[in-house]
Amino acid sequence: MGVREAQKLATRRRVLDAASDLFNEIGFEDATVRAIANRAGVSVGSVFTTFTSKADILNQVMQDRLEALYEETGRIIPLMRGSTADRCRSLFAMLYAFEMRRVKLFLAHIAVAYRWDVGPIGRPFGSNQVFRDLMTTWLRDGVVRGDIRIDVDCQAVIDLLLGVYAWNYRLAAAENADSDRLTALMDQQIGMIFDGLKPRP
Amino acid sequence: MNHLPLRSLAGIAQVRRPTQRALAKQRTREKILAAAKALFTEKGYEGATIRDIAASAGMSTGAVFASFTDKSDLFNEIIGADRESLFEAMRAEAVGASAEEALNSMFDAGYRFTLADLPLLQATMSVSWSPDLGAQVRGRLNRRPITELVGEILTASIERGELSRHTNVAIVSQMLWDCYLANFRHAAFEGWGLNELRARLAEQIRVILAGVRAG
C-alpha cells in the first residue's frame, strides 16, 4: 500500500469512529458532516473523498458493527443447544446486549432505514439474511424434533420475531429500558410465539 | 358531547357565528396542512422545508409561522389527524365472529388505509425513532392507541371463552401491533401490496392466537 492509500484509509477510519460516536450522542440529523469532520480532525473535503454522503457514512458504520456482531455471535452460535425457543432467546439476548451498548446509534439506524430521501440505505432493518437463515434452520430442526408443527411458515414467524424484537426498542427510546429488561420481555414473547407453534394435538 | 353541563349549553346558544377573520384563518391553516402533507409525502420530513411548504401553499413563510410554531408542530398536526382517521377506519372494521376474524378485518382496514399513503408512514416511522423529535411524535400517536382496539377484541374473545383467561392482553396486543407495523418493511422496500401483507399478517395472527387459545 502506498503512503497516499494508507493515509486515505486512516482518514476513513477516523471519520467512521467520529461518526459512530456522534450519531450515538446526538442522532443522525444533528450530526452534520462538518461536526463529524471536526471530531475526526479532518477537513470536510476529505470526508467526501471516501464517502458520498452522511447516509453512506452511517451505512459503513453499521456494516462495521455488523461484522463485530458476527464475530461475537459467531463463536457462541455453534455451541448452542436446546429447543428452538431457547436458541432464539439466546440469540436475541445477544443482539440486545450488543445494540444497547450504542442504543442511540441503533435507533438512528432504524430511523434512517425508513427514509427514502437520503439516498440508498444499505440494509433496511429486518432483512439480515444471516440471522434469518440461522432461525430458519432452527425452526426446521424444531419440526424434525417434533416441537414445532410441520406446516410452520418460517418467513412469517421470523418476521414476527424480528418485528417484536425491533419494536421492543421503543421501551429503550421512551422509558430508558436497559438490555436486561428488553431481554426479559422478549423471553416472554418468544415463549408465547413458540406455544403457538406447537404441533396441534 | 351529550354530558355537557347545562350552563355551557346556554353558552353555546349565545356564541356568534365565526367572524370572517376566524374563517380566513381556518382556511389558511387548512391550505398549509394540505401543502405540507403533500411535501412530507414527497420529500420526507427532513427534505421538506417551511419555505417549500409556504411556496406550495401560495403564501409567505411568515403566514405559515402565524399558524404553526415550527415544522415539527406542523408535522405532528398532520400525523395526529392521520392517526385519528386510521383509528376510525380500523375501529369501523373491528368486527368478526372470532378474534381471528375481527383482527384480520381490522388490520386489513389499516393496511388499506396506509398503503394509499405509504411515504407518509415511512416519514412517521423515521421521525418517531429519531432521538430529538421521537418523543413528541410518539406522544401524539399514542393519543389514539390502536393497541387498545386490539385489546378490546382480545378481551371480548376471552369473555367468550375462546382465548385463555391467563392471556396477557397488553403484551399480546402489542405483539400484534408490532408485527403489523414491521410488515410494512416489505411494502416499503420490496413492493409488497395489500394481498401479500394481508397473507403474512394472517399467518402471524394465527400463531399468536394459537399460543393463547383456551383449553
Structure description:
The complex is a heterodimer of chains A (201) and B (215). Chain A is 74% helix and 0% strand. With 201 residues, chain A is mainly alpha-helical. In chain A, helix 1 (3-30) crosses helix 2 (33-40). Chain A is elongated. The termini of chain A are far apart. The mean pLDDT of chain A is 91. Chain B has 215 residues and is mainly α. Chain B is 76% helix and 0% strand. Chain B is built from 12 helices and no strands. Chain B has helices at 6-14, 20-47, 50-57, 61-67, 71-92, 99-115, 118-128, 134-141, 146-159, 169-182, 184-190, 194-212. In chain B, helix 2 packs across helix 3 (50-57), helix 2 crosses helix 7 (118-128) and helix 6 (99-115) runs antiparallel to helix 12. The longest helix of chain B has 28 residues, at 20-47. At the A-B interface, helix 1, helix 6, helix 8, helix 9 and helix 10 of A face helix 2, helix 7, helix 8, helix 10 and helix 11 of B.
Key descriptive features of the protein:
heterodimer; A: 201 residues; mainly alpha; 10 helices; B: 215 residues; 12 helices
The main sheet of chain B comes to: none
Low-confidence stretches of chain B: 4-8
Shape of chain A: elongated
The largest inter-chain interface, given as chain pair and residues per side, is: A-B, 46 and 42 residues
Mean pLDDT of chain A: 91
H and E string of chain A: HHHHHHHHHH
Number-wise, the strands of chain B total 0
